Amino acid sequence: MTKPALILFGHGARDPQWAHPLQRVQLAVQARDPARSVSLAFLEFMEPTLSACVLSLAEQGVTEARIVPMFMAQSGHLKRDLPLLIEQAQQQCPGLRLFLTEAIGESPDVIAAMASHVLSLE
Amino acid sequence: MTKPALILFGHGARDPQWAHPLQRVQLAVQARDPARSVSLAFLEFMEPTLSACVLSLAEQGVTEARIVPMFMAQSGHLKRDLPLLIEQAQQQCPGLRLFLTEAIGESPDVIAAMASHVLSLE
Q1: CB pairs under 8 A between A and B
Q2: Three-class DSSP category at B56
Q3: Across the interface, do A22 and B73 touch by the CB < 8 Å criterion?
Q4: CA distances from A106 to A66, B49, B65 (A)
Q5: Over 80: is that where the pLDDT of A22 sits?
Q6: Which band of pLDDT confidence, cut at 50, 70 and 90, is reported for residue A1?
Q7: B91-106 burial, b for 16+ CB within 10 Å, e for fewer?
Q8: Is residue B9 helix, strand or coil?
Q9: The pLDDT of residue B122
Q10: Which of the residues A94, B50, B111, B119 has an alpha carbon 20 to 30 A from that of A29?
């Protein structure tokens, strides 16, 4: 069975540089799992939107995708805005099932890596 | 020589839950370096502000602090707002030297941990 596609969902910003860490995560994931579909999508300021990303995946025949919020924490964006966007995308592409995971900053391993990074600063 | 104090600087949000990952990073850092001063400060919605945090550290006799932006990437907040806040805090507390580091999401180790987390989702 094919693994679900991954959508790294970021806030977005006017400055193109803002997307670099997300692009690096995308590349790192693809390097370790080359067969996996890994896309970026953004809440605002950057393209593609979640809707456009989901549509593109559906057109490629993807039937399942996991949305990973690239946010420090469970913000209002994730609790209110994102579920609505997912509902809209789901209606637009009923053949592609979408699953939402929690903010990546909530992951214990990411928290441990952040703590190590902070301690490494001298 | 005492190591510089650490200030984990987050965006902040109306929802108190938002601060949990930052609090967990703070606790993890303190668990590994109990003698270290590790504070949280926020851009908006949450307390303390950077100004209040720096004032409190100065009153405790701290002479050096490193500000770690708990942001996914180098946003406009970090490029424009934060340097102004640091300048104001620096003028308010000239005896406490402040150093700014880059967004924690730019750290290669944090990026690697985020990629591992994404790949661990099944």
Answers
A1: 141
A2: helix
A3: yes
A4: 16, 23, 26
A5: yes
A6: low
A7: eebeebebeebebbbb
A8: strand
A9: 74
A10: A94
Residues in a beta bridge with A69: A9
Topology of domain A5-120, CATH: Rossmann fold (3.40.50)
Average pLDDT over residues A55-79: 95
Q: Assign 3-class secondary structure to chain A.
A: CCCCEEEEEECCCCCHHHHHHHHHHHHHHHHHCCCCCEEEEECCCCCCEHHHHHHHHHHCCCCEEEEEECCCCCCHHHHHHHHHHHHHHHHHCCCCEEEECCCHHHCHHHHHHHHHHHHHCC
- Averaged pLDDT, A21-44: 97
- In this prediction, the residues of chain B whose per-residue pLDDT falls under 50 are none
Tell me how close the Cα of A92 comes to any Cα of chain B, in angstroms.
Answer: 25
pTM of the model: 0.95
* B29 neighbors A114 (Cβ within 8 angstroms): no
Return the bridge partners of B40, or none: B8
Total Cβ atoms within 10 A of residue A88: 13
Residues of B in contact with A13 (CB under 8 A): 73, 75-76
Give the per-residue pLDDT at B81: 93
- Whether the pLDDT of residue A41 is over 80: the answer is yes
Distance CA A38, CA A29 (A): 8
For residues A64-91, average pLDDT = 95
What is the distance between the alpha carbons of residues A83 and B27, in angstroms, rounded to a whole number? 31
Report CB contact under 8 Å: A17, B71.
no
Provide the residue ranges of all domains of chain A, joining segments of one domain with +.
5-120
CB spacing of A72 vs B22 below 8 angstroms: yes
Note whether B68 and B7 are within 8 A (CB).
yes
